[in-house]
Amino acid sequence: MALYDLDRIEFAYGPKTVIADLSLTIEGGHFYGIIGPNGSGKSTLIDLLAGHLKADAGSIRFDGRPLAAYSRKDLARRIALVPQDFRINFPYTCREIVMMGRYPHIPRFTRPGADDLATVDSIFKEADLLGFENRPINQLSGGERQRVIFARSLAQTTDVLLLDEATSNLDMRHTVQLLNLASRRVSDRTTVIAVLQDVNLAAMYCDRLVCMRKGEIFASGPLESVLNPETLKTVFKVDTQVFPSAFTGSLQVSFSKEVQS
Ligand SMILES: Nc1ncnc2c1ncn2[C@@H]1O[C@H](COP(=O)(O)OP(=O)(O)OP(=O)(O)O)[C@@H](O)[C@H]1O
User: Fold this and answer.
1) Ligand 1 centroid vs 7 CA: distance in angstroms?
2) What's 23's domain CATH number?
3) Molecular function terms in GO for this entry (predicted)?
4) Nearest residue by C-alpha to atom 3 in ligand 1
5) d(Cα 19, Cα 26) in Å, to the nearest integer?
6) Fewer CB within a 10 Å sphere, N or C end of the chain?
7) What's the domain count of the chain?
8) How many A from CA of 158 to the centre of ligand 1?
9) Which atom of ligand 1 is nearest to the CA of 41?
10) CA 5, CA 60: separation in Å to the nearest integer?
């Protein structure tokens, strides 16, 4: 059974339709990349998958049930989202923020248990965030904040990890570290669905690719079937070469300076 089944989804912000007649099946246990030009609807699709936006028409089923039938708490136990931009003015410490990932698992009116504390401790270590525990989140750089929000999503221990450009502010090392951690979760049967602006990162990490154009799915399927010069030229209007890199072992995309009109 598919993990997500989207059938003829429509979504508009006010009068502006941004997702039109979109159908998509997402299988569990894969690393999906969503690519597409600016404004093509990638973040909107992620917000629909998270249950934060409701489709105007069509249906979204998650693990065999309508997504809308899940309670907020049930969804938070199963789906974690790292949004494109996360800002908070209150000086919560990073430890408090990461602990918030445990809240859906903690019964009401009780405090975090030994398991929750141990999970959070191990995530600070795994995410290379030791030393950040007591720092206020609103005093971090954009990249540091992004890494802490990603750590919070790991603490949520969900079946699905939705990443909306979660590496956009990260340097090379931290980009690779974060995507390695996400990839490790895929080996443990988590499904990762990541909006990635960088097609080369998508090529290195994803085994499935969804390529969007103007609110529709232009192509989707195994990475090798989607990542090709014809698709990239039609969708991004840029000439590319796609070839296996001898260095990384992954497909790589090299693009020309010429932009098609
Ligand atoms: N809150 C909103 N109100 C009105 N229009 C919106 C809103 N959010 C997004 N849009 C519009 O919806 C379309 C899709 O936006 P979306 O953020 O899903 O695209 P995207 O593919 O994620 O873009 P990017 O690569 O630039 O992040 C865009 O044309 C955008 O201007």
Assistant:
1) 21
2) 3.40.50.300
3) ATP binding; ATP hydrolysis activity
4) 13
5) 17
6) C
7) 1
8) 26
9) 18
10) 6
